[in-house]
Design brief:
This protein has about 350 residues and is an alpha/beta fold. It is built from 13 helices and 8 strands. The protein has 2 domains: about 90 residues, no CATH class; about 200 residues, 3-Layer(aba) Sandwich (Rossmann fold). The protein has an 8-stranded mixed sheet with strand order 1-8-7-2-6-3-4-5, sandwiched between helices. About 25% of the residues are buried.
């Protein structure tokens, strides 16, 4: 809401002048100003270079600088990052650090907490035990039941020409050839190693000219939207945050858990498998739209892809098998020596 209020309401004259005051204090102000000019409209030639700006010229300020930059997205983003967020978004003056030692120390009060899964309950300190309410005891089985539905019955081994792991670009090409189409890629198995998130999203768009935008998480862990013309904007401020049916979505391994996206009905997703993929990681990666209750909606479909080298130890005699049952059981049946052998 903060971003939207500034995007639509714009900056005041004082705020525009404050942006220019802060701009000249940067190590490379020309580079930042070039971004403002690139995002601006009808900027005259004399103002396309920073040395043409004179904030002490009242006429230039009133007739050019304020009208041109008060709603300029680059200028607004600069004001938000330099002024609004550092000063007004600070919730606490100090932070209280904590560590695992604080969990196990002797104390008068009982240590309590919440976990959405129970797979790692054996890793808790010995002084802490997990007590699951009776009404959630069947959740794990219910999730697996949904994953094994007939509409999810697809599993594919992927590999390169010589049996090596398939490259990210080749995998995307395989993805766009699927029918029905796949618009979501959840890289739970960390198979997309060659491309950073933004570059992968750009490449995916080049393969899908019918798609309006791609959604990914940037280096700052923020949901981001990129369009075919290269325009990048925050997901929260983009019109595509309510038009996911017109987009493709990519979540890398680090963000397949804890990301909340309300995907449209009927959307199909591809999920990669890889070494050390536990059942907990696999299920959390798939349930990106589960609204806290951990219910896998039956209106969305998942198919699983794994590089053949990772699956050969478990299905060496079933190369042609195409069933999601193997994909669901893959992380459940990994003995320790296999899970850590890759």
């Amino acid at each position: 809401m903060t971003c939207l209020s500034y995007y639509y309401g714009g900056l005041t004259e004082d705020q525009v002048l404050q942006c220019f005051d802060l701009l000249v204090k940067l190590d490379n102000p020309e580079m930042e100003y070039d971004q403002w000019v690139e995002l601006g409209q009808d900027i005259p030639g004399e103002l396309r270079q920073l040395n043409g700006v004179n904030t002490e010229d009242k006429t230039q300020v009133d007739e050019l600088l304020v009208p041109l930059f008060w709603k300029n997205k680059g200028t607004v983003d600069f004001y938000l990052s330099q002024v609004v967020f550092p000063r007004t978004a600070r919730e606490f003056k100090s932070k209280l650090p904590t560590s695992p030692w604080d969990l196990v120390e002797d104390k008068k009060n009982i240590t309590t907490g919440f976990s959405g899964t129970n797979d790692n309950r054996f890793l808790l300190p010995t002084s802490i035990s997990q007590e699951d309410p009776d009404f959630v005891l069947g959740t794990n089985a219910l999730v697996l039941q949904h994953l094994l539905l007939p509409e999810n019955d697809y599993y594919e081994c992927t590999e390169g020409p010589n049996g090596e792991r398939e490259s990210a670009t080749a995998f995307l090409q395989r993805l766009v050839e699927k029918d029905p189409e796949i618009r979501v890629l959840l890289d739970v198995g960390a198979q997309m190693l060659e491309l950073r998130n933004e570059k992968l999203a750009r490449h995916w768009l080049t393969l899908r000219p019918d798609v309006s935008a791609a959604i990914f998480l940037n280096d700052s862990d923020h949901l981001t939207v990129i369009t075919p013309d290269g325009t990048i904007e925050p997901f929260i401020a983009s019109p595509f945050n309510r038009q996911l049916d017109k987009c493709v979505v990519y979540l890398d391994e680090a963000h397949t858990r804890g990301t909340d996206l309300k995907l449209p009905k009927g959307m199909r997703a591809a999920v990669t498998l890889g070494p050390k993929v536990s059942k907990d990681r696999l299920v959390q990666g798939k349930l990106i739209d589960c609204r806290k209750e951990r219910k896998l909606t039956r209106t969305q479909v998942v198919c699983e892809c794994v590089s053949w080298g990772k699956a050969i130890l478990l299905c060496s005699s079933h190369r042609e098998r195409s069933t999601v049952a193997f994909g669901a059981l893959f992380p459940l049946k990994q003995p320790p020596e296999i899970a850590y052998a890759f």
